[in-house]
Amino acid sequence: MSVIFAIAGFLSATWVARIPAVSSKLDLDTAQLGTLLLFIGIGSLVGFQIIGGMIERFGSARTSLGFGVGYLISLSLLALSPNAIVLGVVLLFYGFAFGSLDVAMNAQGVTVERGLGKPIMGSLHGFFSLGALLGAVAGGGVAGLGIGVTAHFILCTIVGLVVLFWANEGQIPDEVVAREESAPKRRFGLPPRSLWVLGLIAFFAAVGEGGMGDWSALYIRDEIGSSEGLAALGFSAFSLTMLIGRFAGDKIVATFGAVRVVGIGSAISAIGMLIAVLPGTLPTALIGFAIMGIGLAPAFPIVYSAAGATPGIASGAAVAAVATIGYTGFLLGPPVLGWVGHVTGLKGALLIVAALLAAIVPFAGALGRAPKPSTEVISTH
C-alpha cells in the first residue's frame, strides 16, 4: 500500500516539475496555463462524486488499481497533447484519475489500518510526500539533462505500471459495512452531518497546505525582500518537516490519541505561521514555516482515518465525501488568499491562514474514532 502512495506522489511531482516544458512546447502564456490547470481541480471534484459508489461496488483495492492505471496513462497523454484544447481535456482526465485514486488508496489504507489495529495513515501519507520529493528531484534532473518530456513521461508510465501491479498484490479486501436503515443512500459525495466537522477540518488544513505551496515563496521574496533562491527555502522547510511529521505521526497518535495530536498540532502550526509572518525576517520565516509543517503534518491522515471509521458509512464513501470538502480548500484557498493579499499584502493573507489553523483546535474532538483492532495478520508492500 505504501508503494501505491509513493507512486501517486512521484507522478504528481513529475508533472509539476515538467510543467514549464509542456508550456513551452505548446507556447502557452501564463493566463492560458493558469486556466488549463484549473481543469485538474475540476476533474478531481468530478471523481470525488462517483468514487465512493465505485469503491462500494468493486472494493478499494480493485478501484485503486484501475484508477492508478488511468493516472499513469494520463501522464503520457499530457506529454503527447498537440495543442491547448487537447491538453485541457487530458488535464481533466488526469485530475479525475488522481482524485479518484486518492480516495481509493486512502480507503484501502483505512482497511489495512483496521486490520493492523494501529495507526498507519500518517506513514502512508509520508510515502506520498517522499514519492513527491523523489519525483521533483528526478524531474529536475531529467530536465537538466535535456531529456524531452515525452520520453520522460512514457518511461515513468511504463515503469510505474510494472511497480503498480506488483504493489497491488499487497492490497486486501474491504470489510463489509452494514448500512444503517435510517441512513439514506447518498449520491454525488454529499456528506452526512456526521462528516461535516471532519470536512471542515480538512478544508482548513487544505487552505494551510495550499497557501504554503502558492504563497510562501512570494511572501519571502516580496514582503521580506529576499532573492528567489532563498524564497524557495520557505516551502522546502515546510515540506521537509511535514515529511518527518507524517512518518513520525503514527507513533505519536498511538501514544497520545488523534484528538490531542490534531488539536495541539493545529495550535502549533498556527503559532508557526505567526512566527513566520509577524517579525518579517528571513530566519523567522524559515523557522516558522518549518514549525507549521510539523504541526500540520498529521491533520489529513487522521481526518481520512476518522472518516473511514465512521459507523454505518462505507469507508470509500466517507473518505470521498470528506475529500470533496477538503479539496475545495485546495482549489479556493490559494486564489482567495491572493485576492486578500492584493488588498492587504501577503502578510495579511497568511495571518488568515493562521486563524483558520487555530480554528481547527475546537473541532478536533470529532477525530476520536480509532481504527478497530483485529487479530488478523496483514502484510503489505
List keywords for this structure.
single chain, 381 residues, mainly alpha, Growth Hormone, Chain: A, 14 helices, 0% strand
What coarse outline follows from CA principal-axis ratios? globular
Looking at CATH, the homologous superfamily of the largest domain is: MFS general substrate transporter like domains
DSSP helix fraction: over 70%
Strand residue percentage: under 5%
Tell me how many strands there are.
0
Do you know the CATH architecture of the largest domain?
Up-down Bundle
Q: How far is the first residue's CA from the last residue's CA? A: 6 Å
Question: How would you spell out the order of helices and strands?
Answer: HHHHHHHHHHHHHH
Structural class: mainly alpha
Radius of gyration: 20 Å
The number of distinct helices, counting runs of at least 4 residues, comes to 14
Number of domains: 2
| Mean pLDDT over the full residue set | 83
**CATH topology-level fold name of the largest domain:** Growth Hormone, Chain: A
CATH class type of the largest domain: Mainly Alpha
Tell me about the biggest sheet? none
Low-confidence segments, ≥5 residues, pLDDT <50?
Answer: 178-189, 370-381
Write the layout of secondary structure elements.
Layout: H1 2-17, H2 19-25, H3 30-58, H4 60-80, H5 84-116, H6 121-144, H7 149-168, H8 196-224, H9 228-256, H10 258-277, H11 282-296, H12 299-308, H13 315-344, H14 346-359
Helix pairs in contact: 1-4, 1-6, 1-7, 3-4, 3-5, 3-13, 4-5, 4-7, 5-13, 6-9, 6-12, 8-9, 8-11, 8-12, 8-13, 8-14, 9-10, 9-11, 10-11, 10-14, 12-13, 13-14
